[in-house]
Amino acid sequence: MKYIIIALIAGYFVFVSIGVRMGHKPSDVVRMSFDGLRTAGALMAILLLIGVLTGSWRSSGTIVTFVYYGIRLIWPHLFLIVIFLLTCLMSYALGTSFGVAGTAGVIFMTLARSGNVDPTIAAGVVLSGIYFGDRTSPASSTAFTIK
Predict the structure, then answer these.
(1) Is the pLDDT of residue 110 over 60?
(2) Does the reported pTM lie above 0.70?
(3) Alpha carbon of 27 to those of 8, 12, 19, 80: distances in Å?
């Protein structure tokens, strides 16, 4: 952990020196970095909440319950299509690809592993669904920031 913090601080000084070298005032570079930190802070909060949610799901048995009923409800020959459609729907409704990948993605990958589905294909289907839903969602924050 100590080495990561040292690397981050060193990277910040490199960032500031490159900004100054490109003709920006040091105060402007520091202001720009704090503006970026505010934007990254929201993302860090989302990732922290996803981590807390998935950790509580794992410890409380929620994922096991979803897997138990998921195996009984999803037909094997439609498994990948159902995964794609569900991740699209959830990501579209919530507007977050990280949230769906960290919660439902974990459940679907566990279902795929228990159903002897190739994990590489299942992961591709999950990622395709969450990003398709995220990019088309009016609630998504990333759909409007890409130029």
Answers:
(1) yes
(2) no
(3) 19, 14, 10, 52
